[in-house]
Design goal:
Helices cover 18% and strands 33% of the residues. The chain contains 8 helices and 19 strands. It is globular. The two termini are 46 Å apart. InterPro entries: Barstar (IPR000468), Barstar-like_sf (IPR035905).
């Protein structure tokens, strides 16, 4: 379904959003559920997970996690974000693999494990996000509990334990954050949903944001399990629809100002992203995925990268894409994607020359962005190495 086909209506205000049920199997065309002028409550930081207390029982004393926590000279209490994974102790036995995200983990206490001087019990306060495993929720017959905290180690598990108290308790629920679709013109599927008794269980749809040309800028998933409608504040035989609990797939407040720029169309002037902070630049980089494409497989030539604002990861990738393909274009939203572009497709491919101006600014700014899984190189160094390994002549100035 082309968004441009549904962007026009005979009213004094434009269509800015479409509600679309997308066909994930691509066997049929996407279905329009509605279109509306505005959305209130869309931009929001993700709420913190409710705090819980877990006891990690039987952590080996020799593990990095326990050594750092119990170090008398400088014990670590703030572990930050991490992950708990449960896998079969013997991979050849098979069995389910499960994982949980641990948000802002803090060590509350530690003590020797009863009856085992070689192990320690850690009491941790954290937010817990359950895995979305849709199969069996059972554990392997002989489970192995691994703990991953990038603040301690970025290239592997930080430690492990024998069991976790509190992990399988009922999770506290986050408060719902309603979304309001302003001046909505429902299509037949949404009208049918609104006529059902609450809760309706309408399932997921995609909220597409349009620019002034009717082109889709980006999209977010909404859950239409409970929706209510009333006459619109703007009249015009439209309705305002409240989605009681649409889920947490939302842009952050930093995205709002970026969307205002992109709502005029794909940016045509270089460097418009430079004034935004890290959150805004990340959103700009996200929008470039639907931006203009370059020529298919063009090689050769010299390109100039303006490095004055390539001072964070998103800024570096934006400056690279702009240098090679122009404003609003995408040459990868991470280094793996950059590698894909270097190998072909609608992009500039090696051999070519990239003159990186003000390279020292990026080198200094990204010195602390170390990629431990790539030998401890900084993000700047790894980017330069990646380009050169794929046949790009990189000139640093």
């Amino acid at each position: 379904m082309r968004s441009e086909e549904h962007a026009g209506w005979e009213r004094d205000f434009p269509v800015r959003y479409l509600l679309v049920r997308e066909d994930v199997h691509e066997a049929e065309e996407d279905v329009l559920w509605g279109r509306c002028a505005e959305v209130e409550g869309l931009f929001a930081d993700p709420p913190p997970l409710p705090r819980e207390v877990l006891t990690l029982r039987g952590c080996p004393r020799e593990s990095l996690l326990v050594r750092r926590v119990t170090d008398s000279a400088g014990p670590v209490r703030l572990l930050g974000d991490g992950m708990l994974s449960i896998e079969p102790a013997d991979p050849s036995n098979g069995g389910p693999h499960r994982s949980w995200d641990l948000e802002d983990a803090t060590v509350l206490a530690h003590r020797p494990a009863p009856g085992d001087p070689g192990r320690v019990d850690l009491v941790v306060g954290t937010g817990v996000r359950e895995d979305d495993h849709r199969g069996s929720r059972r554990l392997p017959p002989q489970p192995r509990f691994d703990l991953w905290f990038p603040s301690l180690r970025g290239d592997g598990p930080s430690g492990g334990c024998r069991s976790v108290d509190g992990l399988f308790a009922p999770r506290p629920q986050r408060p719902a954050r309603p979304l309001h679709l302003i001046s909505c013109e429902p299509a037949a599927p949404l009208l049918a949903l609104l006529r059902r008794p609450l809760p309706q269980e309408g399932g997921p749809v995609t909220l597409r944001r349009l620019d002034r040309h009717g082109r889709t800028m980006t999209g977010y998933h909404l859950v239409l399990d409970t929706v209510e409608a009333r006459p619109s504040v703007l009249g015009a035989a439209l309705v305002d629809v409240t989605v009681t609990d649409p889920g947490d797939d939302r842009p952050t407040p930093a995205a709002r100002a970026v969307w205002e720029v992109w709502s005029e169309g794909v940016p045509a002037r270089p460097g418009q992203w430079a004034r935004f902070d890290a959150g805004g630049r990340s959103e700009w980089l996200r929008l470039t995925r639907a931006g203009r494409y370059g020529p298919d497989g063009r090689s050769g030539g010299t390109y100039h990268l303006d490095g004055r604002h390539a001072t964070d990861r998103a800024g570096l990738l934006l400056a690279l894409g702009e240098a090679l393909l122009g404003p609003g274009a995408n040459y990868g939203t991470c280094l793996d994607a950059v590698a894909d572009c270097l190998c072909g497709g609608p992009s500039v491919v090696p051999p070519f020359t990239l003159v990186w101006h003000h390279a020292a600014l990026a080198r200094r700014a990204l010195a602390g962005h170390v990629l431990h899984h790539l030998g401890g190189l900084s993000y700047f160094e790894e980017t330069v190495n990646l380009l050169r390994e794929h046949g790009v002549t990189v000139v640093l100035r």
